[in-house]
Design brief:
about 270 residues; alpha+beta; six-stranded mixed β-sheet; 11 helices
């Protein structure tokens, strides 16, 4: 995804990221506790991500009688909540659940889980039940801060990026450009029709149906791409988009009646 990052922000990344990579390595060697890790993360939010340490970063933010470690608030609005673990602690599913619960209880759709080194950005969808999706993850120690693709990951969390809604744009892009959506698009009627047409060009006399092609794709695509909740969600999104596009192109009088279907055979 192409994100336009202001020059001053890119320069800040290039200057400050290496500084905190050294800080994090030293802290990791000392195996510092959670409180000290929170202090380092607070400094990163200020120096790298551009937030005012005293007015825009709140420690021990209250969420329904419990406290998340950090909250980033700009112009009176909480932009995202953060759950911070000790630097030597591996981030686990329980930690993700804890961070997501904070966001759910506070009505905040963005939460960040980190141990200072590993950063995970989650998007919450307020449905029933509330669901969460990993939007972005990176290792701070492995960042190459002069590379644009690395800067894009940082920009979605920085103050200037939030002002441009970069995090939502990044999320929307990552939602569509992934293996599940590509798998769903490949299995769509439109693409199956194209494949059928191309195969018949190779052998005009061959009797090939879209149903047959769809079945063969099961041997071409990986199972985890076409099965499971994420695959089902992607397939439904592709079908809705195709239906919406068809309705725009087709006059109401010529639309097929409910329950009818097109011949997808020969």
């Amino acid at each position: 995804m192409n994100i336009r990052i202001p020059k001053k922000v890119a320069e800040r990344f290039a200057k400050q990221v290496p500084v905190f990579q050294k800080v994090l390595r030293a802290a990791n060697d000392r195996d510092v506790n959670e409180s000290d890790t929170v202090t380092i993360v607070t400094d990163i939010l200020s120096a790298v991500f551009g937030f005012d340490k005293y007015s825009e970063i709140t420690r021990e933010h209250a969420v329904r009688r419990t406290f998340c470690d950090l909250a980033v608030e700009v112009d009176g609005e909480v932009k995202f909540l953060m759950e911070v673990k000790a630097i030597g602690l591996t981030l686990k599913e329980d930690h993700i659940r804890q961070a997501v619960n904070y966001g759910a209880n506070h009505g905040i759709q963005w939460v960040v889980l980190t141990n200072g080194v590993d950063w995970q950005v989650y998007h919450l969808r307020f449905e029933r039940p509330i669901e969460h999706e990993l939007t972005c993850s990176f290792s701070f120690l492995e960042l190459a801060p002069r590379k644009k693709e690395e800067q894009a990951k940082l920009f979605i969390l920085c103050r200037e990026g939030l002002a441009k809604d970069a995090i939502q744009k990044f999320h929307t892009h990552s939602e569509i450009v992934n293996r599940f959506f590509l798998g769903a698009v490949i299995q769509s009627d439109t693409v199956l029709g194209v494949i059928r047409r191309e195969l018949r060009r190779l052998s005009p006399s061959a009797k090939i149906s879209q149903t047959e092609i769809s079945g063969l794709l099961g041997d071409v695509l990986k199972r985890d791409v076409v099965e499971g909740e994420q695959a089902d969600r992607a397939r439904m999104s592709v079908q809705r988009a195709a239906g919406k596009a068809l309705r725009k192109r087709t006059p109401r009088s010529k639309r097929p009646k409910q329950g009818s279907s097109e011949d997808k055979g020969e």
